[in-house]
């Protein structure tokens, strides 16, 4: 077997944060001994999230068993995901900001496993033409991640997903305006959408308004790119239920890095 050195494009600050989280958890549960130190466990988890390394590769590289690598990664990602902001917290911060508007969009995370035949059909996304889990993403006007939803089957459309998670009602109650694409047509008051293209009614004025709308809304793609820059979400090989945990753990790490 061959070994080679590798790197993770993260700062020591991120590693220190995760290691402190692990140390506090070990103290709280009274764990006396572990195969890896807190720093090494944190490095293991960050390698999985950022580089998308498999359990088997990580177990071999860190000199531990496959089951141990799985337990360490699951334990730490659960700890990180529990610290992600909920929808009302994120909307409250965005509503109290100077801009008082947010960007909303959906993305589909590709998966390898779906379970039974009914779930296989539900997870197929017509838009992306592969099986996946759909996530709703809220960012501030600069494209920085503010909130990521729980996962839904890939066949669920963006507007249905937004209504399921209560995003539209929560933002209306907080007085927060949303800028979104045509996938949210029919969302109602407080959601700003581009004009639809009709043959005889698409005037130069509407065309200019759509260009201005796109210039504002396109920054949400920066937030989605930030989320998917963590390679574990490129193609999730774990259970589809873990997509939500991964997304929330990444949100926590991204926000801790900015603060």
TrEMBL record:
Keywords annotated in UniProt: Metal-binding
Residue ranges of domain Transposase Helix-turn-helix in the record: 34-85
Location of the DDE Tnp4 domain: 104-253
Pfam family, one: DDE_Tnp_4
Coiled-coil regions listed: none
Cofactor: a divalent metal cation
Top-level lineage group: Bacteria
GO molecular function, one term: metal ion binding
Protein name in the entry: Transposase
